[in-house]
Amino acid sequence: MDLMMRLKGGQAFKAISDEFHAREQMLGQDGLPLADFVEIMLKGLPKAKSGADAYDTISGLIDLFNDIDINGDGTLELSEFTSYCVDAGMVATRVKVAPLKYQYIKNKEFVDRTTEGSGIEKIKWCPVLKRALVVETKANSVKIYTSDFKQFHQVFATSVNLPSAQVADLDDFSRQTAFTTDADLLVQDAEFITQCKLLVIATSNLTLAFYDVDHYSCAMETQTTVSQTMLRWCGGASVLATTGNNHVVSLWRVAADKVCLVKTLAAHHDVVLDVLPIREYDVILTCDIKRYIYMWDIQDFRSRGHLVGHTHGVRQMVFSSVNDMLLTAGFDFDAFGWDVSSKQVVMTLSGHRAPLVGIQLARFHTERAVTADVDGHFKVWNIHRLNGSSAQLLETISNVTRFCPRSFVTLSPRRDIVAGSSVLHMFESIKIQKHDEIPLRAFYHHGSNLFIGVTETCVNLWDGTTGALLEEFTGRIAAIQYDSINKLIVVSTFPSTRDRDDDEYGTGGIYVFDDSTIGECDLLRSLTNVPVETSSFSYNASLVATVASDAAVHLWDFETLQLRCVCTHPTSLGLHVVAFWDPYPVLVAADNAGNVLFFPTASSQSSRPDGGVLHCLANAHVAAAEGEAS
After folding, report:
1. What GO annotations for molecular function exist for this entry (predicted)?
2. 441-629: which CATH architecture?
């Protein structure tokens, strides 16, 4: 990269591009070999002052050639060179990118003293239990970590009903003792079954052992015909998916005291690497090391087709319900976003220069995708469908030396990343943009000791004890209402005034948050691309009213956010205030001329589908002034 910064003047890139094309025409091929690339680049660099400088420059250009030649064909194409420059930030693009509010930084205070083996094979995070499990290479135990990774349980692979190790501090890890007698019993994989509060461990002796998650004592076990190397709990189908080297996916029904095999899926011809249920489409997806992705019905497990797009094996799949998109990553350098209903690739996450380890979702004010490659580079992507066919790269994390991750997870609903190579590494999402807006309104919830602060552009969730910012939801806020009975927060936003390149939501919208869980404020449902200037909420009518510049009141069903009716008045000059007159089924609105309008909320259900006015209190002063003027 230092060599690239030494190019002479702003015309150096254009000169190199022209020389590339001329040399390709002379050679009669696409791309240049190493010698031609070095010769062209030397013309654009300052002349070496000594033989040692020339040697260092040529060595650097050879290394640069090998770094840029991502397809390994021994020639360097201009597109590869340009992509490298854009990825390095050396060529200006026309994409307008908003300044980052968050940045991933390696947590240097976190030091992994628990990993014993040659490395970490698998990391899984269970947001329901707020626990993470780690499977090490050739280990005879599974480590269960708390959400801060400061404490852990160690569950040993054993066919004997022995208790597991007790909770241990990291400093006490050296005093942990293994009381399993099965020294050669190795853990292949492990998975939490949240529905039954069980932990299942697949071992090398063809056994699936189930442990309760409270005391980690063995509750039951079952035998398999081959060693199961991959376990996935499919919550939408209530089945446990397992697979081994026979390439067959086995589906198991699991109860508190019983496990039985219900179906086998035998379409794959190589090792299956991941299984993903998608409740929204009633399908289960399986992928293998041969690039194939198969779809199965979630009810009767019949085949529902396959997805074609990868050229190499697929390692991991996740589904973004917010963006209605399936995301897949594998041994390709690119990840893909799929429309499940059409089975087509709708987005490409392009920018990595090595095979991918996996892909995860992270919740900021909306869902982002996080990818990692085998060279230790992480990338954060904006996967909103407004970006078109290419995801927007927001951030690259590559500041860890000698780091080759094998697995990683995002700790939802937080944004932190935990990755495993020879040891565990933790990356924290730090807010780097200061909060400099004046709060418009604030709420305090004594049960969870949380503050909700509202500004023009965001809703912030603050810890009442430490004052730390826990979560931020953005969008120009028009109004906020609190439903104390159901403990719900209803937020409506203004239409966006930002440029499209800087816009993540398009226009305004309605967002419903749930604050019933202590320490969290989850987004329940949302309705985007809805113009909103002001709004109101009624618990009795179960309606949300919004007003836009069209001088009409839109009534939305609170449970489904479907439009119930539109209330209009022909003489209205633009509404700017709206409120429900609870407990009566009446909505009151006022326009810019000072007229007060009464609309029936019951019209959204039956009698008056046109949303007609019940009564109008006209502003007599305005009417008199208009009469005198005429």
Report:
1. calcium ion binding
2. 7 Propeller (2.130)
**Could you tell me the two tokens for 178?**
């293994």
52: part of which helix (H) or strand (E)?
helix 51-68
Tokens (6 digits) for 202: 């697949």
d(CA 29, CA 15): 19
The 3-class SS string of 567-602 reads EECCCCCCEEEEEECCCCCEEEEEECCCCEEEEEHH
Segment 419-458, tens digit of pLDDT: 998 889 999 887 665 555 667 778 888 778 888 887 766 7
Nearest CA to 274 out of 331, 353, 225 is that of 331
Are 340 and 283 in contact by the 8 Å Cβ rule? The answer is: yes
Rounded to whole angstroms, how far apart are CA atoms 546 and 535? Answer: 4
Tell me which residue of 286, 267, 266, 284 sits closest to 226, measured CA to CA.
Answer: 266
Where in the chain is CATH 2.40.128? 120-231
pLDDT bin (cut points 50, 70, 90) of residue 152 is confident
Helix (H, G, I), strand (E, B) or coil at 84: helix
Tokens of 493: 């936003």
Q: Are strands 303-307 and 314-320 parallel, antiparallel or unpaired?
A: unpaired
Q: Which regions of the chain carry the CATH code 2.130.10.10? A: 441-629
Six token digits for residue 273: 């690497």
What is d(CA 86, CA 64) in angstroms, rounded to the nearest whole number? 15
Beta strands, E only, 68-139? 102-106, 120-126, 131-136
What whole-number distance in Å separates Cα of residue 538 and Cα of residue 533? Answer: 17
- 199-242, pLDDT tens digit by residue? 999 999 899 999 988 888 888 889 999 999 999 999 878 899 99
The radius of gyration of the chain's CA atoms, rounded to the nearest angstrom, is 30
* Percentages of the chain per state (helix, strand, coil), in multiples of 5: 15, 40, 45
CATH match of 120-231 with 2.20.130: no
Say yes or no to pLDDT of 1 above 50. Answer: no
**Amino acid found at 227:** S
The helix or strand, by DSSP H or E, that contains position 408, with its residue range, turns out to be strand 407-410
Amino acid at 168: A
Q: Are strands 293-297 and 488-493 parallel, antiparallel or unpaired?
A: unpaired
- What confidence score (pLDDT) does residue 558 get? 87
Q: Report the largest interatomic distance among the alpha carbons of the chain, rounded to a whole angstrom.
A: 101
CATH architecture for residues 2-87? Orthogonal Bundle (1.10)
Distances (CA, A) of 3 to 60, 232, 375, 590: 7, 47, 22, 66
Q: Which of 208, 68, 200 is closest to 144 using CA atoms? A: 200
Angstrom distance (rounded) from CA 326 to CA 319: 4
Q: Where in the chain is the domain with CATH 1.10.238?
A: 2-87
The candidate with the shortest Cα–Cα distance to 106, out of 456, 361, 374, 423, is 423
Q: Which of 2-6, 116-120, 164-168 has the lowest mean pLDDT?
A: 164-168
Please give the Cα distance from 135 to 144 (Å, whole number): 9
What global pTM score does this model have?
Answer: 0.57
Quick one: tokens of 103? 């940045």
Which of 557, 559, 533, 523 minimizes the C-alpha distance to 543? 557
